[in-house]
Amino acid sequence: MQKNPKPCINTGEFARLCNTNKRTLFHYDAIGLFRPAFVDENGYRYYSENQCDLFFTIRCLQEIGMPLSEIRQYIDHRSPEALRQLLEQQKEKVRQEQEKLRRIEQVIDTKLSLVALSRQPRVQGQIGRVGLEEMPEEYLVLSPPINTGEHD
């Protein structure tokens, strides 16, 4: 049996360490994004603990919406300049997303204040004051007289 000279952990342990699941690791391996440090003759995958940093980088980029194909391209051609460009692009995307969320929050706040306003009683004019206004005759509407002895 072939032994790996570097200390490694199995797929399940690496998945727990990185707060993910084994299927994610299998998928990343299948698409060539993140390969195990060692695969034994039985096909068992093993990862070194120093791969955690790369895995977390992949997950962070994915979390902010970067497609796996672009992440793979970056991983395949890593350099300080490529990292700088990538981070600037992603920072701009995050800024745009924050602006979008800020606008959504503003709409929600406006709707909440309208709902609160609709629950307050509205009073037209002044209460307790009686006034008399003269109007032209065409605006005058008369009802028939009420001739009844019931005051209910």
Automatic annotation (TrEMBL):
Record key words, sorted: DNA-binding
HTH merR-type domain ranges (all copies): 11-77
Keyword NADP: no
Domain of life: Bacteria
A Pfam family this chain is assigned to: MerR_1
PROSITE patterns: HTH_MERR_2
GO MF term (any one): DNA-binding transcription factor activity
Protein name stated in the entry: HTH merR-type domain-containing protein
